Each structure stands twice: as C-alpha cells, then as structure tokens.
Amino acid sequence: MNIILLSGGSGKRLWPLSNDVRSKQFIKIFPKGDRTYESMVQRVYRQIKEVDASAKVTIATSKTQVSAIHNQLGTNVGISIEPCRRDTFPAIALASLYLTDELHIDPGESVVVCPVDPYVEKDYFKALKELSDLADKGEANLTLMGIEPTYPSEKYGYIIPQSMDRVSKVTQFKEKPTVDVAKDYIDQGALWNGGVFAYKLEYMIGKAHELIDFTDYKDLFAKYDTLKKISFDYAVAEKENLIQVMRFDGKWKDLGTWNTLTEAMEENVVGKGILNDTCSDVHIVNELNVPILAMGLKDVVISASPEGILVSDKEQSSYIKPYVDGLEQEIMFAEKSWGSYEVINIEKESMTIKVTLNPGHSMNYHSHRNRNEVWVVIEGCGKTIIDGMEQNISAGDVITMAAGCKHTVIADSELKLIEIQLGSEITVDDKEKHVL
Amino acid sequence: MNIILLSGGSGKRLWPLSNDVRSKQFIKIFPKGDRTYESMVQRVYRQIKEVDASAKVTIATSKTQVSAIHNQLGTNVGISIEPCRRDTFPAIALASLYLTDELHIDPGESVVVCPVDPYVEKDYFKALKELSDLADKGEANLTLMGIEPTYPSEKYGYIIPQSMDRVSKVTQFKEKPTVDVAKDYIDQGALWNGGVFAYKLEYMIGKAHELIDFTDYKDLFAKYDTLKKISFDYAVAEKENLIQVMRFDGKWKDLGTWNTLTEAMEENVVGKGILNDTCSDVHIVNELNVPILAMGLKDVVISASPEGILVSDKEQSSYIKPYVDGLEQEIMFAEKSWGSYEVINIEKESMTIKVTLNPGHSMNYHSHRNRNEVWVVIEGCGKTIIDGMEQNISAGDVITMAAGCKHTVIADSELKLIEIQLGSEITVDDKEKHVL
Fold first, then answer.
1. Entry pTM
2. pLDDT band at B65 (very low <50, low <70, confident <90, very high)
3. Does B436 touch chain A if contact means CB atoms closer than 8 Å?
4. Please, which pLDDT band fits residue B10 given cuts at 50, 70 and 90?
5. Contacts of B317 in chain A (CB under 8 A)
6. Which of residues 14-53 of A touch B (CB under 8 A)?
7. Sequence-distant (≥ 6) Cβ neighbours of residue B230 within 8 angstroms
C-alpha cells in the first residue's frame, strides 16, 4: 500500500507542548511501556507498519517539520516537502507527483491519503488497505472513507451516501451543520468526512494538469508559491461523479484540542506530577523536570513545557488559540534532525542552551556574526571542527568560539552540551552555513 | 523602641515558593510600584522604620536564614542566631540576652516581641510602640497585644481580659477552641493571641535564669542545643500574674497558607501570567521566566518556581504539607548572603547553575573533592582567586577548576555566572572552606 500522510502546521491549540516549530503530532504523549512515550506520528507510523510491513509511507509537510520527522521516524520515510502552505489540493498534487517522479512508483498504482494525527486502532489501517484495494479495482475515481458518527457533531463535514451498503456511491457533501441538521443527516445514513481517500496516482496527476499549468514534479515544486490556496474537497471531491464511500465504524478520534487529547490519554499523569485524592478528571502533561502538585481540581488539564504552563478547564481549553497568539515568546525548545535543544536561561546579553545530539549526528558547519559562544560538554563524546581544525571532545571539555569562527560538533555517542551564547544581538537568524 | 522579630522555620505550606532553605517571609510578593515586589520581612521592616525611624530591630532566627536576611534587609539589622530550634521561650531568652550582652542595651529598657510575618498596616506598629510605652511604665511584667476577633476562629488561642477597657488585666489564656466555644469567648470580650508582647529586658533575663542554668549570652548560646523545647506562653505568660493586655482592632492577617496569602494580594497576577475572562478568584504567583495561561478556573491558586508548580483549589491548599513532604527534590533555588543561585539543568553526571553575586560580595574560598567546575561569566565584572592566583574577569571569560582546586569569585558590579559542575558524585555537602 502507498500512503500519503498529510502533516499539518503549527498547532497552537495544544500549547505549551506545541509551538511554531513543534506541531502536536510530534508530542510524545502515548505510553508504550517502560515509562517511554510515542508521539501521534510515531504511533500512526508504527500502526501502519504493523498492518502492512511493506507499506510505502510518504509524509506531505512543510520544511520546518523535516527535522522532527527524521528525528522521530528515521530516514526511511518519504517526505514531500511543501515549499510553503497552499492548502490540501496543491499538497496532494505535489505529493502524488513526488511518488511517481521521485520515488518512481507506477502511475497505475493506488495511494491512500490520510491525516497524520487520527487517534485510531489497527482496524483503521486495515480499512485503509481495503480503500486502496477498492481504488485498484477502478470502479470509481475516488474512494472515500466515511466514519460512522457517534453523535451529531457540528465540527465535521458530512458525506451523504446513496445507500446504507458498506460501499456506496456518494450523492453529496455537506458542510459542518448545526446539531439538528446533523441529526437529520445521520438519520439518512450520513458519515463524517475524516479527510481520508484513495485514488490511482494517474487520476490525481491528471487533475493536477487540468487545474495547474506545470510540466513535472520539479516544475510544480519550483512554482509552488505561485499556486492559489484551494482545498482538495472543493477542487476535486465535490466535483467528481465517479466517487464512492466505504463505511468505517471502528474507533476514531480527532485529537485537536486538550479536551479530546486528554480523553485519549491512558494515564492521568505524563511526566512528574501528583494529583491529590480530591482531584477528579484532572490530567497533567509535564515536560519540565520539576513536579506539578494538583489539589482539589475537577475537569482540568495542566501542561508544562519550557514554553510555558497551561492550567485550563477542559471545555475552555478549546478557546486557547487567541491567548497563545498574544504571547510573545522565544522558541524555548525544538527538535532538530540531529537532536534537540532547550533554552535554559536568558539574560540581557546572553542565552544558555542545553544541546543534545543523537549518536552519529552533527550540526551544520556554521558561524555567527554577532555572538561568541562557549560549549561545555556535559555527557558523551565526539569531535568538534573549529575553523577547519578537528578535536576530540568528551565530558568536561570546554570550547570557546569567537564571532565569525566556523564550527560544528559531531556526536559519537549521545552528546550533551551546555552552549552559552554571548553578545548584545542574539537572534536565531544570525547564522551562516558553510561547506565543510 | 526595641523590637525582636521571631522568624520561623521552613514554610512548606507555601510550596513551591518556600522550601527547606527559603521560608515564606522571604518571598517577594507584595507590590511596591515599578513592577518590583517586597517580601513579608521587607514589608514589616519598612513599616517599623516608617513608624519609628530609630527602632532597633533584632531578628531571632536560625542560621539558615541569615543569608536571606542580609540579602533582603542589609547588614544594619541585628540577628540573634538560634543554633538549633528550641521553640519560643529559649529563642526569646536568647534574643533578650543578645540585646543586653551583645548590643549593650540597658536591661531597664523595654522590648516588643512580634512574629516576622503579620500582614498589617502602620497602626499595628503604632500599637507596638504603645505596648513598649506600657511596659516602660512597669505596671505589669508582661503587656500583651490582643487582636479583636473578626470571626469565631478555631485557629487561634484566646486571651480573656478582666474588663472591656482598652488596657486590662488578663484573667486567663484559652487554647484553640471549637467555633461554638469561640463564640462564647468573644461574647465575653476575648481577644486573639497573636504572639505579640512587651516586657523589660531585666524581667525576661530573670525568667531565663530562673528556668535555665547559664551565666551569660555566650554561655546560653553554647548550651542552646541542650535546652528543652518549650513555648513562651507555657513557660512564662500563663504563669505570670502581673500581666495585662491592650486591645488592637486594626487590620491583622496571618498569611500562613495560600488561601490567606492570596486574600492579601493586591494583584491577581505576580510574574508572567494571563487569566482569561472566564476565570474568577484565581491568583498566579509565577517566579519562572515563562508565562502561565489560566482558563475557566474558579478559586484556584497557581504558583510556579524552580522547585515545582502548584495548582490548587484555595480551600484545599491548606492541606498541602504532607504532599510536599513526599516530594524528593533537590533545592533548586536559594538566596545567599552574597546573592542567589538557581539550578537550571540536572543530568546524571552534571549540574548547571546560574549564580548571581551582588556588587561587592564574594563566595567563601572553597574547594570540592569530587567534582570539576567550569564558570562562564555572562554579565558584570569582578575577579576570581584560583589556588591563590588573582585574575580579573568579565562577560565571556571562562574559568575551569579541577576537583581539589580552591576558588572564589568577587563581584565588582552585579556578576552573573553559569556554573557547570561535572562529576559522578555531585552533592551540596562536597564543599571544603579555606582561609584566603
């Protein structure tokens, strides 16, 4: 099975765990035993591979997520990079061409498109495989998955099928309705539109050429920023006549807010936290190294990260976005392809950062115009290259780098550094990359 | 006026702001304009000086608080150090002898004893002055302040006066009663016992010699750990016949729990914090550098410090102690006589600390047996002495110290360092002091 996972943008609604450089799908929150946790994207990827070990997975996403994807899934996963955000139709067109032109998959093969962040079980991925098989048969151009509604939700679009058969033609799409209208739809056998569908690659590439003027993958990639934003439903699905839907009645949750996310959590406390016995329905997700003590609370979510602390009534938590937009905040934590960093102290003319490099990884060879840096190795070993000079390093070593000096570090084992940046104009933009 | 302020022990009930080395009276929480805040002890000291600029203030406390007192009040304040905790009678006896033997105050003078942490206004300190004047008159051996009850509290002891006169003889002391009994007392004109009283020094020194076998201040200090724990009320007040009480009906609050502390706060948010419009009666006290966002909460206190995060229903917050006792936690923040430190990162074999030295101050000259250290100066200037060698330092300088190496740093201006400790056995006890 070929599968394209659409990986969306920065999820402020799960602040403080998500931020401009870390989206919700990368938060490690689902227990996998031994007090270790996996993220949504890791969970989904693992589930796909468990159902179909030979599945070819491609993630369609923006450049900012590439580091986190490699960090969490390794380098075997395909990534179709969107040079900028242009909504789902351009993203799906580009990813489809990436499959044929870059991965050389036969245009006659089918592909399933699916969001990267549903909270589901294995039966969902078995259903995706069925969807792919249905697309192979070619009885329709598009084969959607329709999710059996569990309540008359106002949050989802609805698909109206021609019959109650497991697989049926689609008669209509409906926008997010009111509760009463949703009840009506459900009585008619309507299904939630979870943004999941299968098609033959040649079909989508044909649609792309119909709607966009381009030659091949590279050309589409190059002119991507000139494309207009348009959703796949609007551009393709709603206009297609040869379209069918397959009913899915397994477990499906959309973990977009703290409220729904905590519903999916198997443990009330992730990280250091204590709930006293007068707490009920309280969840703690704590990424800090200090404990959270919660007393006498009900229906509250508490989350702490290097970015900040949220304490919210669960219902209220869905209204978080404008407040987070209002926060002016340095990025305090980020996952990179080579590891991660965390800001641990900020002063007027200095910033102190903990840097963790994964074994075998290295930073870019780079320099800064306006700041000096000091590295103190606190764990592991590796080597530095400073203005071309190689040097082995291990815990206790100190490396000083004046502004302008080119530097990188290569980890042999997991390597941790305290990096102290010194200068009056410290910004993330003050970085020049060099060829080693 | 001579005044002895009794400064109690570690206040776990205001965790995470108080800890084993910082008591509640040192938390800077009361606004004094310009976004700066003062602690309880600073507030009380300022109020005393505003009422009586020539007041001689002595703080009776344990050794662990000396640094914080000097840091917050400077060095003009007298400190009677209790070598260990032995309850109020030994503490008051020792402090009284400190006044006569060390500060050479005439034993015929009066002194007022008062806890260091009442939340009061200037009229309270004017009343203390009256108390002192009453003691001067010598009509009674002990002159108490009785606080007019505002409700039938179960939390306080009661003083039963002979009459409703402003100053009256005391007929009886009563232990913490039930609400019904308290109502009875109040109907009889009873007053709360706030632990405030005045006496002539010679009276208390006489009592001390009566009850303890010692010669002078130095001798009492030396044998302090052999004294038995006994409260002043039990040892002296309840047995004294020549005892009077002065009614006080001004503002008086005992800020022992988060519940009462937040009642006294003029602002709902101290530090970085946002309350959305569905919050009511929510207080945030945030000592961290990242924001706290509170949504949809009612009657909740949120407090964050380098020690941890508390989120509690206000009523529930008075039951905090056992939970805090259960936390195994490094001391993450402390005020010292020379400035302060904050732990900013802990790994298996390293600890990173931000050290701030006040201008003109220095650490002890010391060494460590089992750890190497690296200092990176991030702000200010001064000098280091490393194994006897002096060196000027300023922002950007790096100093490495192997285990065993003797070192100190002296601040010319406010000086900030990042200190990285490296070793497999890092403990606060691994410290040897040396003479410079």
1. 0.81
2. confident
3. no
4. low
5. 295-296
6. 15-16
7. B86, B87, B89, B90
